[in-house]
Predict the 3D structure of the following.
Amino acid sequence: MIDVSDSRPVPQDLLVVLRHPPHGTHWLREGLDVALVAAAFGQRVGLLFQGDGIYALLKGQQAGPLGQKGTHPQLAMLEMYDIDTLWVSARGLNERGLSADDLMLPVVPLEASAMVELLQRHPHTLIF
Amino acid sequence: MIDVSDSRPVPQDLLVVLRHPPHGTHWLREGLDVALVAAAFGQRVGLLFQGDGIYALLKGQQAGPLGQKGTHPQLAMLEMYDIDTLWVSARGLNERGLSADDLMLPVVPLEASAMVELLQRHPHTLIF
Amino acid sequence: MMLHLLNRSPRSTATYQDVSEAFGSDDHLLLIEDACYAAQPSAGAALEPFGGRVSVLQEDLVARGLAKRVDPSVEVVDMNGFLALTETHERCVSWF
Amino acid sequence: MMLHLLNRSPRSTATYQDVSEAFGSDDHLLLIEDACYAAQPSAGAALEPFGGRVSVLQEDLVARGLAKRVDPSVEVVDMNGFLALTETHERCVSWF
Amino acid sequence: MLNYALLLHAAPYSHQAALSALRFADTVVANGHRMKTIFFYHDGVHNASALMAPPQDEVHLADGWKRLHQEHGTELLVCVAAGLRRGLLDVSEASRHGVMSHSLEAPFELTGVGQLVDAMLTSDRMITFAP
Amino acid sequence: MLNYALLLHAAPYSHQAALSALRFADTVVANGHRMKTIFFYHDGVHNASALMAPPQDEVHLADGWKRLHQEHGTELLVCVAAGLRRGLLDVSEASRHGVMSHSLEAPFELTGVGQLVDAMLTSDRMITFAP
């Protein structure tokens, strides 16, 4: 699934913003695929969970009723790919009545001003 | 484009609810296709424009920049198919700052209670 | 008596508003797919217009890790319960 | 300096909110496709967070019958203007 | 016993809706009702592709629909206007439009929107699944 | 002169996004820039179908992408994982997966997501068009 080119370019910083919840659509899965491939490709990848994308991190997710894979197995692979800082929108977290204890991985909540700064210091950004 | 079966069933009432604006997606076009076909098929068809679907009626629409057809030519065909009453959500109209003068066809604005009644008296409803 | 089927997250506020305009006093709302997120107590206002006549699909709740996060005013039904709702309601409309 | 591209109607309130969280003081917002509806004076609040740094695509306005309904605070650009915005902004992100 | 018709607007593998529809259809027949017609419209026509090759550990949606036809006689109707635009066509449409090969085979059938109206009028229940 | 890459997530004939992307690509080349790569992902892979047969009075999207390749050398890269699931495959993938025929031909190429990352790193601008 993860293809790695022989010629690795100089590492750059890529921010992948995840805005869609798991299961209902494939956006989250495809955004995580890009993040994992980019990391395997030698890039420094950061993830920002925003809006309903925060639900990707909710504990206790399972496979879908027809056996369709969730995205939580992809999240479990992040550390192996050196993707270790997960940012979340503090406002998005509050609006959903969630705290860090509800999430399956440690996260860094960001206020809006810090989110703007985060986007500005990453030379590449993809939104899913 | 309009296919008519030989065996026409007893006419029934079909309400088609249009909730999506023109051009951005094909929902509106496909809902109108169903309405026109059902009318050609001998059914009594009513249209309810709700939410952004109200923009389907805005005057002055044109073909898209790559020549893609709009939905206003379909609307011009409604009368030919005896689809002559167009209902719109009064709230949706107000929220968009629109009045009947802004629309290309005469409409009947409905309050929420009248919309509920409209759905209830149509034995068939399709939402697009 | 109509069954309304809704599959969008409660952040799709326009869809919830459109459903509420068309929701009769005998109607019922079933939340499936990403609409499961509306069944949480924290989603609150999204379901207010539906006067407690709301169910949510268990299988979709479980997949999303929401099984223990359902507001008590929302009834949980499984796929057989979903089918039963379409049996008892002569008409079913889907909002998307 | 980032160009934000938005193609959803202003009734997709969650999307507009997410853009506003990520919108820097040097950034610019371009409304295309169904986001043209946000350029009307009646859409008001949707564009408030963007401090007047908003453009809308002329070709998409015209197709929707909105050419004469643009709020004076929103700049109208054609396809060449869209391209020029991507030339002057090193990065472009799309919200959907 | 009720006759059910489903209207599916959603492409496979992008939204849950196609899986939701298949799961609902399975529940219909498991409870002794008749799963009479599935109408594929909009991006839903892609569900009928004979060419899809999903990973072995994912649901093969086209096979799921075919199983319903084989075991329960469910009609699988694909809107011809929506299908042609999107590259879903049978042998005769491929030849008529000079397209190199076809992507749709029985038990899927290309039909007009009139068949959707007919399905609505002649079924007891019509349930829509959309993206 | 800048190098542009586009990422297209949207299926043809359901959303305006595919038309928006084609229109943008035309503007890029008309203004003397290089339209280097178009990467088709998610439902965007359906744009590469060799089988689409839209009505004569509608834009033929696959032909539009091919024209960009022929006249301007634009790479047309289709995500292989997204394509296989959805029935977009070339001769060799069709044979490998035992599928009756193929639906994708040159100048469209099946590639991995790595090529998307590469396009992002090696272009001056990457613009996304989504449904």
Q: What stands out?
A: The longest helix of chain F spans residues 17-30. The mean pLDDT of chain F is 98. The two ends of chain F are 29 Å apart (CA to CA).
